[in-house]
Model the fold of this input.
Amino acid sequence: MDIWVCVKPVPMTQEVDLRIDASGKEIDKSRLAYVMNEWDSYAVEEAVLLKEQSGGNVTVVTVGEKPDEEILWKCLAMGADKAVRIDPGAVVPDGYLISKALSEVLRQNGCDLVFTGVQANDHNEGVVGSMLAEHLDISHAAVVNSLEVGDGTATVRVELEGGVEEVFTLELPALLSIQTGINEPRYVSILAVRKAHKKELEVFALDDLNLSEEDLSPRTAIEEIFESPQTGGAKMIEGGLHDIAEGIIQILKEKGVME
Done:
């Protein structure tokens, strides 16, 4: 079984004072460290677990620059067999372009299962998985929190709204967007990462892929990034119940909620 896992490098923003860059369309990432997207780490672990249970090969792939290979080496240390990096060059890819580039590489190599994370925790988008499945014309399921693979099928449990879950079976090949909590990603030591450098890491440029000029044109563009407006502090209403009720009604009238 050939399993491909799509991973994304994202900046670490915890405990960091984020600043908007000069363009006003992106945060200043010059001093930010990059790590693997949290959702993707669960997808890699699920692929490796499936390989250990049933055999096969696991390939991880990302669209990124040379420094982004660090997360690929980590995936190889986790147990993946091969890594692929698609170099975007001067192009700034959006979700559509990323999905098109990934689809071309997958189409050239073939696959039985494709895993992605449910979403990326930089822009909180979750579009690449479903678009990739559409480009490849294969079945897919999102927010998968349980998986069993049979003979040419995959039975999955997915999260729906309101705490409801659904179980259904897909024919392979299929794409699954993996939810956090489906497993516990294994710890990877520095020594394991160093040993992983013996494995294969292949690099493609966008020019190496069968992409048209239209494919290379982003479908979305960030217009502006701005900080949330500052609001006033809480207003304390003192007195008895009647005074408090009158105070609340007065505030609602001032805000235009009621007349």
Observations:
- The first helix runs from residue 38 to 54.
- Residues 2-208 form a domain with the Rossmann fold fold (CATH 3.40.50.620).
- The two ends are 66 Å apart (CA to CA).
- The chain has six helices and eleven strands.
